[in-house]
Amino acid sequence: MIKIVQQEDPVLRAEAKAVAASEFGTPELSHLVEKMSAALATCDDGVALAAPQIGVSKRLFIVAKKIFEEKPPKEDLVFINPTIIASSKTKKVLEEGCLSVRWMYGEVKRAEKVTLEAYDLNGKKFVHHAGGLLAQIFQHETDHLNGTLFIDKAKNLQEIKPEDLHHHD
Ligand code: CO
Questions:
Q1: Ligand 1 center to residue 47 CA distance, Å?
Q2: 127 CA distance to ligand 1 centroid (A)?
Q3: Rounded to the nearest whole angstrom, what is the distance from the C-alpha of residue 20 to the centroid of ligand 1?
Q4: What's the pLDDT score for residue 10?
Q5: What is the pLDDT of residues 89-100, one digit of tens each?
Q6: Going edge to edge, which strands form the sheet with 113-119?
Q7: DSSP character at residue 73
């Protein structure tokens, strides 16, 4: 089983390296994404995962297909070398947790909408506009690639053990 690293691991504090042009379209890059998907699938409450969370300091993250309840894609969505190119002025304070910071939860102010530019596995650039949960995910995961954890920004942090957590997915 692939381990999700926890907050004391320095890989979570490093600035992740861009995926190189030569890596796009390779089986190694696909395999990395498969490993990330497998790790994410082990977490009932997981909605996304950045590569540093499995110990790989590269700029990519995935978003679980299950969050797209109405029209789930076949595979988890992949965002490589992502950049937030626009953020709404409207911010919202949202409840947040992290698979690498068990079992802390807190409130983080996030832009309500963001536009993310990223590359797919074959190196094709695309733009994704997001609001709601997906916008929150884009911001949280981009932070991971810059060595930032939500606990750096959160207010009212508290520990909620899994047995006390109500299920929401
Ligand atoms: Co996280």
A1: 9
A2: 22
A3: 23
A4: 98
A5: 999 999 999 999
A6: 48-50, 60-63, 77-87, 113-119, 125-131
A7: -
d(CA 49, ligand 1 centre) in Å: 7
Tokens matching residue 88: 């709404």
**Count of Cβ atoms closer than 10 Å to residue 1 Cβ:** 6
For residue 169, is pLDDT > 50?
no
55 CB-near residues (< 8 Å, 6+ apart): 3, 5, 9, 11
Catalytic residue among 112, 141, 159, 163: 141
Active site residue 141: yes
Residue 87 CA to residue 51 CA, distance in Å, equals: 23
The pairs formed by 147-151 with CB atoms below 8 angstroms and a separation of 24 or more are 147/12, 147/13, 147/14, 147/15, 147/16, 149/7, 149/12, 149/98, 149/100, 149/101, 150/96, 150/97, 150/98, 150/101, 150/106, 150/108, 151/7, 151/98, 151/101, 151/104, 151/106
* Residue 134 CA to ligand 1 centre (angstroms): 13
**Which pair of structure tokens corresponds to residue 84?**
């937030």
Is the predicted pLDDT of residue 168 greater than 60, yes or no? no
